[in-house]
């Protein structure tokens, strides 16, 4: 039986999964995978059995590889922006810059 992953390894995997989830160009996929990542790591955090933590960690590592491939495909075929997404305004038109 192998040792359970360290706290640093779990946090690193969490950050990688969040970063990859945020790279989806599709709003629905992006928000779904961010939510799913947070739920997965809450479950890992709540688990006390080391062997179960190890298996959950291994599954999350496999999920990260799938997530990365999916994000690349989604970036290629992302589609249009939705009305609910934030649209970043150019610097020169921001209201706080005009008042100066």
UniProtKB/TrEMBL annotation:
One example of a Gene Ontology biological process annotation: iron-sulfur cluster assembly
InterPro entries on file: Complex1_LYR_dom, Complex1_LYR_LYRM4, ISC_assembly_LYR
GO cellular component assignments: L-cysteine desulfurase complex; mitochondrion
Segments forming domain Complex 1 LYR protein: 8-65
Pfam families: Complex1_LYR
Family named by the database record: Belongs to the complex I LYR family.
Protein's recorded name: Complex 1 LYR protein domain-containing protein
